[in-house]
């Protein structure tokens, strides 16, 4: 069977496009799976309880309105003054007030 140069070119082009489509599909699938896994992990962080007497920097930062600076302030306060006796005692930490406690109601535990 003899193929003309044009037929050979057409067959090779179709083959290359098919190969490129398969690789493109595989490349796009992996990041989507990774993103969905991170979303699931983030959702579990949002509903998990945080023991303010034991939480590390990352756990404290999972709370609404708590960034790195406030998380460090909570840990410094805890190290200096001992364990929190009540969740409301968090308001003694600079930058933490009733609004922040309300945003995290149900997640903060002793």
Automatic annotation (TrEMBL):
SUPFAM superfamilies: RuvA domain 2-like (SSF47781). Keywords: Signal. Residues 58-77, 88-107 form the Helix-hairpin-helix DNA-binding motif class domain. One of its GO terms (biological process) is DNA repair. One of its GO terms (molecular function) is DNA binding. Residues 1-20 form the signal peptide. The keyword Membrane does not apply. One of its GO terms (cellular component) is type II protein secretion system complex. This is Helix-hairpin-helix domain-containing protein. It comes from Shewanella holmiensis. The lineage of its organism: Bacteria, Pseudomonadati, Pseudomonadota, Gammaproteobacteria, Alteromonadales.
């Amino acid at each position: 069977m003899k193929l003309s140069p044009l037929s050979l070119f057409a067959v090779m082009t179709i083959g290359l496009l098919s190969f490129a489509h398969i690789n493109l599909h595989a490349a796009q699938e992996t990041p989507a799976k990774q993103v969905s896994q991170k979303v699931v992990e983030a959702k579990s962080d949002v509903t998990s309880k945080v023991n303010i007497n034991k939480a590390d920097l990352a756990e404290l930062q999972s709370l609404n309105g708590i960034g790195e600076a406030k998380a460090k302030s909570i840990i410094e306060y805890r190290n200096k003054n001992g364990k929190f006796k009540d969740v409301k005692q968090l308001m003694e930490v600079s930058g933490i007030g009733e609004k922040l406690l309300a945003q995290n109601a149900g997640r903060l535990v002793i």
